Amino acid sequence: MADDGSDRSEKDSYYDADTDRDPDFSYPMAKAKIVEIYWATIGEEPTSLPDLYLDFHPFSRIEFSIFRDRLSAAILVARAAKKQMNQLEEHFKTQQQDGSHIVPGWEAESDDYLQENMGTVETVLVLMASMRNGFQ
Questions:
Q1: Residue 105: is its pLDDT beyond 60?
Q2: Nearest Cα to 17, choosing from 29, 33, 6?
Q3: Strand locations in 18-107 (E)
Q4: Helix (H, G, I), strand (E, B), or coil: what is residue 19?
Q5: Each residue of 16-66: pLDDT tens digit?
Q6: Other Cβ atoms within 10 Å of 105 Cβ, number
Q7: Helix (H) or strand (E) holding 16
Q8: CA 29 to CA 37: how far, in whole Å?
Q9: What is each CA distance from 92 to 3, 5, 115, 125, in whole angstroms?
Q10: What's the first-to-final CA gap in the chain, in angstroms?
Q11: Whole-model pTM?
């Protein structure tokens, strides 16, 4: 059920509305408009995350529904991981700039340790980018 109480699904939003503001299934939206709606609403509809990867195809068989749900979960986890890695990278860069990572008497070792941590985060970001490119 849609937020307005109607029986419309999120897939109905991929069709232009008729005079009664109901989806007119004979007039699908242009791909550019669908993609624009996708990016505008994606934060509110995690079950729609795979739509971009599935080319906005409205699969209706149960096997595809299960696949869509699992793909939604995988994309949600990947987005959360990327956000966390970006925050961690910024934290390490801030430590590097302000020197807060340095332990007195262990300056060189502190720098090495921070570089190792930054390298780990960079490796994760590169791996995530290569996996994302594999889906495109």
A1: yes
A2: 29
A3: 23-28
A4: coil
A5: 777 777 777 777 777 888 788 778 877 777 777 888 778 777 676 777 888
A6: 7
A7: strand 15-17
A8: 10
A9: 42, 47, 9, 14
A10: 31
A11: 0.58
Structure token pair of residue 96: 């590097």
CA–CA gap between residue 11 and residue 77 (Å, rounded): 23
Tokens of 95: 């430590």
Q: Which residues contact 43 (CB under 8 A, 6 or more apart)?
A: none
| Residues found in the chain | 136
Burial group, residue 64, by CB count within 10 angstroms (0-12, 13-18, 19+): middle
Q: Tell me the two tokens of residue 27.
A: 């007039």
CA dist 71 → 21, 78, 136 (Å): 31, 10, 14
User: Which amino acid does the sequence have at 46?
Assistant: P
Dist. CA 78–CA 53, nearest whole Å:
14
